[in-house]
Design a protein that fits this description.
Blueprint (H helix, E strand, L loop, with lengths): L1 H4 L6 E3 L5 E3 H29 L4 H19 L7 H29 L13 H19 L1 H4 L11 H19 L5 H19 L6 H29 L3 H9 L14 H20 L11 H27 L8 H4 L4 H7 L6
Antiparallel strand pairs: 1-2
Helix pairs in contact: 2-4, 3-4, 3-5, 4-7, 5-7, 5-8, 7-8, 8-9, 9-12
């Protein structure tokens, strides 16, 4: 409606001195003069509200609202109009207070180290902060600023900076709260936290860059979890010492000549693996079951088993290599690699 009232008018007239003046310029001047009186009380009142630092969500909504009116009114008034300048200043000030609130919140989080329970579920504090993130995302998504072209000279506020200012301190708190736990439990809890945040970001296309960043971190932590689980499987399968021997032995020295790698010792060791295969394939990992996502559970478990099968493949090749001095490899190896893959329901890659 305002745009209809004050739309550009190309009509012209002459003033008493004979100077030709465009009607739209006169309308713009009148609008500027009429609105100039609102500048001081508006600025004063908004500063009073912002100084109160009402909280991150409210601060953001205020900043977003001011920015909306700045964009809208700047299209109706002449450039450098008094109200336009005040609105620009208030927009910058509102976002400054918003980021100040986020920084204060981040400092508070640094002092907060609530350990998760034994199930490694996300703590209430992290859920509360995530809920705040969700509301800010919804506010930004529904904001008319998203669909409105920015006014000329209006400061650009990159939403990714807001995401970083909220999410990074949150993740730092997640990390510090599990610093005293085992490495695998640390990784599992951080995967649960990242997965929770990722789910909040998922509905919004403007969070794509941050989601990709989180996905990369998730992948790294899941790899760490898979490696830890693999080491546990190695111990259960009694393959740790054999693997270490293969990794460190001199290529010119026959494996069968090394301590505990003779035919009898190796046969006994691998027979223990065979007897534990059923348990290994059916057992639910007490660590992996703490992952909140079934997909992450399957991914970590599958990766760990593939690493175990790779180790068994290396052992199988070494036993069958004539250079290593084993006359009857089939008598030593309880299973073929294909048998192992079938037991763990893993298809050859």
């Amino acid at each position: 409606m305002l745009e209809t009232l004050f739309r550009k008018n190309d009509d012209k007239y002459q003033d008493i001195s004979g100077v030709t003046i465009q009607v739209s310029d006169t309308v713009a001047d009148l609008l500027d003069y009429a609105m100039e009186g609102t500048c001081r009380p508006l600025k004063s009142r908004m500063e009073q509200v912002l100084v109160l630092q009402p909280g991150a969500l409210t601060s953001y909504k205020i900043a977003n609202l001011i920015q909306f009116y700045t964009v809208t009114l700047s299209k109706l008034m002449r450039k450098d109009a008094a109200l336009e300048r005040v609105l620009y200043e208030l927009t910058e000030l509102a976002y400054k207070y918003f980021f100040d609130t986020l920084n204060a919140q981040a400092e508070e989080l640094k002092e907060f180290t609530e350990m998760p329970d034994h199930k490694l579920a996300i703590t209430p504090k992290i859920r509360d902060m995530s809920a705040q993130l969700k509301e800010i995302l919804a506010s930004y998504d529904s904001s008319l600023i998203v669909a409105t072209n920015s006014a000329e000279n209006l400061p650009e506020f990159n939403f990714s900076e807001i995401l970083d200012a909220i999410i990074e301190p949150l993740l730092h708190t997640c990390e510090s709260s599990v610093a005293k736990l085992s490495k695998i439990d640390q990784s599992i809890y951080l995967v649960n936290c990242l997965h929770h945040i990722q789910a909040i970001l998922a509905p919004y296309s403007f969070t794509e860059a941050k989601r990709e960043n989180i996905a990369a971190r998730l992948s790294d932590y899941l790899n760490d979890i898979a490696l830890e689980e693999y080491n546990l499987l190695l111990k259960q399968a009694k393959l740790t010492k054999i693997k270490e021997t293969l990794a460190t032995k001199d290529p010119e020295v026959p494996l069968s000549s090394l301590p505990d790698m003779d035919v009898v010792s190796l046969t006994n060791a691998l027979s223990k693996l065979d007897s534990s295969l059923v348990i290994l394939s059916a057992d639910i990992s007490p660590h992996l079951e703490k992952l909140s996502s079934a997909q992450h559970y399957q991914q970590a478990q599958s990766s760990a088993i593939r690493l175990l099968l790779t180790t068994y493949t290396d052992i199988s090749k070494a036993v069958q290599d004539p250079k290593n001095g084993y006359d009857n490899p089939d008598a030593i190896l309880p299973r073929t690699v294909e048998d192992m893959e079938a037991i763990f329901f893993i298809l050859p890659t």
